[in-house]
Amino acid sequence: MKALFQQIKWQFMILHKNNLIIISVVMTVMYALIFLVIKDLGNMDKVLTLLIYNDPAVIGLFFVGLSIIMEKNQQVLSALFVTPMNHHIYLISRILTLSILGWACALGMGFSILGTSFYIVHFSVGVFGTCVLFSIMGVLVVSYTTEFLLFLLKSIPILIGLSLPLLNYFNLTDIGLFYYMPLQGCLNLIVNSYAESPIVSELIYGYISIVFWVPVFYFFTYRIFKARMINT
Q1: Do 168 and 174 touch, CB atoms closer than 8 A?
Q2: Environment class of residue 197 by beta-carbon count within 10 Å: exposed (0-12), middle (13-18) or buried (19+)?
Q3: End-to-end CA distance of the chain
Q4: At residue 232, does pLDDT exceed 80?
Q5: Which one, of 101, 89, 99, 189, lies nearest residue 135 by Cα?
Q6: 3-state class of 115 per DSSP?
Q7: d(CA 148, CA 153)
Q8: Tens of pLDDT along 17-69?
């Protein structure tokens, strides 16, 4: 556990050195100012939900891929993987760091739109789970390419596939299958965090979904990452 915390601290230092934290803070402040201007237009909860999946969640998918590609091309990975460092710590520290950053940005957006009139715990777990899932998928995609442009292209179907439950949420579709997709549980928690009377069944489903899908996605992705990036 101590090694994991040390790695997380190191990852935050790298993010700060590369100005990614500052960029994220600036973007959050910009969104907050925009929200203050348009908050009387209505349906701001839907705007917030869309931006969560457009900014904090996608941060994890693209940034985790970019960081691993840079380390691969700079021969950092080959040096790391001959050390006693646990491979799980390497991946988990990156996933958690970017998920924490995404959660902090989303929370700032939430406060700017909703003040304190939302359920912060449900919101936080839903956002954090979303960021973790997107980050894990970023690791999966980067396992198949070390070229950033190819990584971006291969990320598009993953991004679309994970986001399909949003189509039902925005009333663009009404497909029951989407309700059983990994992102639906996170979406349930986020949406119900805005509601005056959250739907208990949806909250339960949301928490169970995250507890189930995150480990499944992680260990599936880890096996692929180990086979293609570590053992090659």
Answers
A1: yes
A2: exposed
A3: 28
A4: no
A5: 99
A6: coil
A7: 9
A8: 777 788 878 877 887 787 777 766 667 778 888 888 877 777 778 888 887 88
**Cα 200 to the chain's mean position, in Å?**
24
Nearest to 103 by CA among 197, 189, 198, 213: 189
Give the DSSP per-residue string, 131-181: HHHHHHHHHHHHTT-S-HHHHHHHHHHHHHHHTTHHHHHTTS---GGGGGS
* Domain positions in the chain: 2-230
Going by the DSSP 8-state scheme, the letter that residue 53 receives in this structure is H
For residues 12 and 40, the answer to whether their CB atoms sit within 8 Å is: no
Residues 69-78: pLDDT tens digits?
877 776 666 6
Q: In whole angstroms, what is the distance from residue 126 CA to residue 153 CA? A: 27
**pTM: predicted TM-score of the whole model, two decimal places:** 0.90
| Amino acid letter for position 214 | V
Structure tokens at 44: 């701001």
Torsion-angle region of 75 (φ positive above 0: left; ψ -120 to 50: alpha; else: beta): left
CA 42, CA 38: separation in Å to the nearest integer?
Answer: 8
pLDDT band at 143 (very low <50, low <70, confident <90, very high): confident
Task: Pick the closest to residue 174 from 186, 185, 165, 183 (CA basis).
Answer: 165
Q: Which helix (H) or strand (E) holds 230?
A: none
DSSP 102: H
